[in-house]
Amino acid sequence: MEIIPSQVVRDLSASYAPVNEENEAIRAVEVVATTVECDVTIEYCQQGSIMGALSAFCSIVFICVLMMKIKRIESSGNHCPVSSDIQEFKRYHDAVKEVLHKKDVITDVSLLKARVLNQIHPSEQCCFLLQLGRFYLNNVFPKLEFSSMKEQKCLNHLANSVLGLKIELKHCHSTMRCACGHQSHKIMEEFRETFYQMETEAAIVKAFGDLNILIRWMEINYPG
């Protein structure tokens, strides 16, 4: 067996020591890097959970605010003031109503009743007018004709005024300020049912004649 001098052993030990320390240092760096990576991942997951919870909370708050707004609209007054000139409606209607009044032979039936109109909740007045205006534009005005050009012109002006009112109310409805509830729906259903139970010409004449009831109601609820 060859004996290695102690000095050589010390030299060999010294030459290998740095290599071992370097390996240990590398392993230490890897451990630290792994720990940092885990910490970052945990922190990211925690941030994701917080953001998810915050997003859900914001959604709930938004829905609650929206529901409160809808309830406030339903319980408060009319949120759709109109800029249409109601007196203009009245002038055009008065200009031709006498001609049709002679044809209105059914005196025991009314399509529009002041008592019923006065019971409409302010929050549903807009919706009622919107539906009624649409009905007149589709089923009443197009079927009326006058031999006098002057009277026909007044009818056209009245129809255009109602169309302008309908557009204004439709815009209000699209912004959630024109609530449609059970009351306005029921009144319109009764109006349509009575209208279609009558003979066509008689129903059209009656509907036009009853506009004076509607105009008086609008003067009270939509003052200029």
UniProtKB/TrEMBL annotation:
Keywords: Cytokine, Disulfide bond, Secreted, Signal. InterPro entries: 4_helix_cytokine-like_core, IL-10/19/20/24/26, IL-24. It is found in: Secreted. It comes from the Eukaryota. SUPFAM superfamilies: 4-helical cytokines. Signal peptide: none annotated. GO terms for cellular component: extracellular space. GO terms for molecular function: cytokine activity. Disulfide bonds join C80-C172, C126-C178, C126-C180, C127-C180. GO terms for biological process: immune response. Immune regulatory cytokine. Belongs to the IL-10 family. This is Interleukin family protein. It comes from Xenopus tropicalis (Western clawed frog). The gene is il20.
